[in-house]
Amino acid sequence: MGLEPRDLHNQSEFTEIWDALDLTSSVALNARQPAPSASRPSAAASTAAAAPGQGRDTAADAEGAAACALPAVSRPTEDAGPPASEASLSGAADAVAANTGSTNALEQTGASRAAEDLQADAAASAVPAASAEIATLQQILRTREGNLALVSDVDEQLLINVCFKQPIRLASFSIIASTPPAGFPTNSDEEDSVAAPMLVKVYCNKSAINFCGVFDEACAFSVQLTAEDVISGRRIALPGSKFHMCSSAQLFVQENQTGATYTYLNRLNFYGVAHKRYS
């Protein structure tokens, strides 16, 4: 495995060669495709649709409870009649006590429901952990943000073929993988887990290479990235003698940081200088 030439070039003289990328011809093998936007369920829409019905049901329950809680009131008459007996007075007292107990029970139930609603609202308003949306290689190459992720499909390996519009003196590259894709755990012990790239082999002008060829063909450069490398996006210097006239670069991500099921990355940047065209 080749060693990283940390001091091979003065990297400050090279800038990102975004304008030289040929996005149409670039492709990533074993990369999963993003789901169509129309098929993605909208949680907010579902919640909004359910809210009116829930409100009506709650109001109806409250009205019914209030009606049950009201004690019966007798209509006054002109002739009150003889005084009530002790049994009658005792029965009336029991009825009032029963009504009072029902009212207290309803108040406790209402308070309990209110507390549950507050807990649900607090959970819904909690800020979720940052996550990225699955994207294509072209989107990854164009983005300046970390909210997109290129994710491997069948296993942890990715074979990325990036083409340039003209020959490039390719000086370095960087990989940023700091925001995992949504819906994928980062614990390697869990099913369908994801992790950032670690072992990366780089080829030059091998645009026809496939997964069989990466093991048969000697790479021009290889590097074992650290977790800090992919979080900070540190530039990885390339040997100039092998990438002096680079029309395409192939990156074979062979292993990831934790041995997770899949590999992801948020950004892929190239640095160098384009050779002048002569007519």
TrEMBL record:
UniProt biased composition (Low complexity): 31-52, 61-72
Signal peptide as annotated in the record: none
Top-level taxon of origin: Eukaryota
GO cellular component, one term: cytoplasm
Region (Disordered): 31-95
InterPro entries cross-referenced by the UniProt entry: Galactose-bd-like_sf, PITH1-like, PITH_dom, PITH_dom_sf
Domain PITH as annotated: residue spans: 95-279
Pfam family, one: PITH
Family: Belongs to the PITHD1 family.
Protein name, UniProt field: PITH domain-containing protein
Lineage: Eukaryota, Sar, Alveolata, Apicomplexa, Conoidasida
